[in-house]
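An instance as discussed:

___
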Amino acid sequence: MQAPMPEVAGVTHRQARAGDLDVHVAEAGEGPPVVLLHGSPQHWFEWRRVLPLLAADHRVIAPDLRGCGWTSAPASGYDLDTQTRDVLAILDALGLERATLVTHDYSAFMGWRIAFDHPERLDALVALGAPHPWFRPTAAMAAQLWRVWFQPVLAMPGLGERVARGGRQRVVRSMLDGSRPTFDEAERQSFLAAWRPPERARALSSIYRRLVLPGMAALARGPYNGRHLAVATRIVLAGDDPVIREAGMGPWRGTADDLRTSTAEGAGHYIANDRPDAVAAAVRELTGR
């Protein structure tokens, strides 16, 4: 059974057909379009505190990605190539030739791919909690890998699905709590409930098996080395993130027209929850609103 839809004042909901997906879209406001792509293990409700801030002078669009929230969850298509096409298809379905894109967590993989390969579709990019695109993992970061112990667990066929939906969902719960509790229990349940249907749990496992782990491994090969980033971009890091820090990201191995990094102090991994004002400020810096 599908989880009940959480509510945010002023936000409307609809379904849009994008490729092979029936995509759930939450929308608010009018003005320059801003598309918010959630991370894991979340859905559009990740942006509940950002939506009202930006809707005052933007058209804000928060879709659920493949297999997540209230978007359809097919058996396949969770790799980076397909999910990048999903995002472009969502823009097409909404009649958006261009938009400002905001990413968080695993959706950063799609954001960088579109920014480099399809820059004509983006007015700007805001990447939350992401290293710059020419980043290489360091020894200091490798020492923190124990913090993402859940990734190979979720990626494992069969086991990942069972732990995502079964019992008290301790794995997903621990992901949401991270190094410190950020959500109250009602908020936490809005995300936990979304993974209880078996097709959703399979989708979450597939996201880690087909996209997240391969994407992390690809970083070491420098997929964007030597490439130019033409899209105006802001990276917003979390001040309380023990792994990704501005000083530890290393040198650029490419060039950019307009790329700046800032740190949202007092924010953990879930920046949109802890510092929605910092997210809105980064967007407004790029859109001029």
Q: What stands out?
A: The chain has eleven helices and ten strands. The longest helix spans residues 198-219. The beta strands are 12-18, 21-28, 33-37, 59-63, 99-104, 122-128, 228-229, 233-238, 255-256, 259-264.
